[in-house]
Design goal:
Order of helices and strands: HEHEHEHHEHEEHHH
Radius of gyration: 18 Å
Strand content: 5-15%
Largest sheet: 6 strands, mixed
Strand order of the largest sheet: 3-2-1-4-6-5
Structural class: alpha/beta
Length: about 240
């Protein structure tokens, strides 16, 4: 927990992710990343210099066999409000539209539904579970498949909705998240989506794993280049001091 909170605190401070009296909605899919993020923010609020609240929101996609009751138990134990929103996203994408490449539309629909739910819950900040490896992979996906240098921002303000997206796991590796989830026995909910793991992102993930064998530390160097370039919104405030 201490290692996780240290990396999350550093990301939050470097990019000024949390302000006094924020009410932050954590998008909880049931995967290891979002559950780890929920645990981190729920514990961070206990000692962070400014007070803030945390709520957890799950969009129920419409897949059979996804039991979120253990996530409810986790939220009860953390003292976090848990909001579950039923949706028909699975039926629309796979049954009605029968999308051959469903990920883009699914992501768009999930974003819209999450933002609506967050605003309804009184949250103008939404915390997403994107981590260190996600950032590096997204950067390479944009470079390889779109021919541009781009990545999501650590902090993004959506002016049309007056919602700010934050990514507190930005300095936390996927391996550290995997280890944390195992040690804490987090109630991970299996995702039965037929497109899961069969994407361009998975190809880039495997490429990076291969490169890491011959060039250890390549992920860290790419991430450092993203901050030094810097990409818009990526230059960290390293002068931040604890209040």
């Amino acid at each position: 927990m201490q290692k996780l909170l240290s990396s999350v605190r550093r990301a939050v401070d470097h990019y000024h992710m949390i302000s006094e009296n924020d009410r932050i909605a954590v998008g909880v899919s049931g995967g290891k990343d979002s559950l780890t993020l929920l645990m981190a923010l729920a514990n961070l609020r206990r000692f962070y210099p400014v007070p803030f609240e945390v709520a957890a929101i799950t969009l129920e996609m419409g897949y059979d066999g996804m039991d979120f009751s253990p996530v409810q138990d986790l939220c009860d134990g953390l003292g976090v409000e848990y909001i579950r929103i039923p949706t028909q996203i699975k039926q629309i994408i796979f049954d009605v539209r029968q999308e051959a490449n469903p990920c883009s539309l699914c992501a768009k629909m999930r974003r819209g539904a999450l933002h609506e739910a967050a605003l309804a819950a009184g949250c103008h900040k939404v915390a997403l579970g994107h981590h260190f490896d996600d950032a590096v992979e997204t950067y390479l996906l944009s470079l390889f498949y779109e021919g541009r240098i781009s990545c999501f921002k650590p902090v993004t303000w959506l002016d049309r909705r007056d919602i700010t997206l934050i990514r507190p796991l930005l300095y936390t590796s996927e391996q550290d998240i995997r280890n944390f989830a195992r040690r804490q026995a987090l109630p991970v909910v299996h995702n039965p989506c037929p497109a899961d793991g069969n994407t361009k992102r998975q190809e880039v993930k495997e490429l990076l794993q291969s490169l890491e064998q011959s060039m250890p530390g390549v992920r860290e160097r790419i991430f450092g280049a993203m901050q030094r370039y810097p990409l818009p919104g990526w230059e960290p405030d390293r002068t931040f001091r604890k209040r």
